[in-house]
Amino acid sequence: QRDSRFEIQTPTATSFIRGTEFRVKVEDNSATRLEVLEGAVDFGSAAENVSVKGSFGSWIEAAGNTPDAPHSLPAAPAELFTPEDKQVLDDGLATYQFSWATVENAAKYHLEVAADADFKQLVEEAWLEGANADMMSLRIDTLEPGTYFWRVSALDSQGYESPWSQPRYFIYPLK
Hints:
The protein is an all-beta fold. The chain is built from no helices and 14 strands. Strands 1, 2, 3, 4, 5 and 6 form a 6-stranded antiparallel beta sheet that branches. The protein has a 5-stranded mixed beta sheet with strand order 8-14-13-10-11, with no helix packed on it. A hairpin with a 7-residue loop joins strand 10 and strand 11 (122-129).
């Protein structure tokens, strides 16, 4: 609602949200990472925060610390190559090679495969290490026949994640 306030509190930071799309992650060491895809978020504590705009992120290592200056997010993979959009995969495949355009300065990629276009019904999620990692082989012989959607994001060496690529879908046929 207009003029309403939405906050997310973690052990190390509070995020104040203003009409935006964002991700807040609590890391293994309890540090908090914010990634703003669209809009703006005031990030930190009530006493000390930074304004983080779309395509940027910030990090707070411990409660009471000052948030890092906004950091540019990596670009999303510009193109997904295989499987091609609307491709019908062959019956009997045990694995399939997913491939996409590499992203400059990417250290890792995040691949999701879902049974729905909103990616609420994930059937596979994989992380691929490496700056030149542009292929991922996944087991697909356990998939039920149907339509599946896939997308990829890139992570830089500091752990900031890009927005998602444009999704594609493939069809796994009846056996």
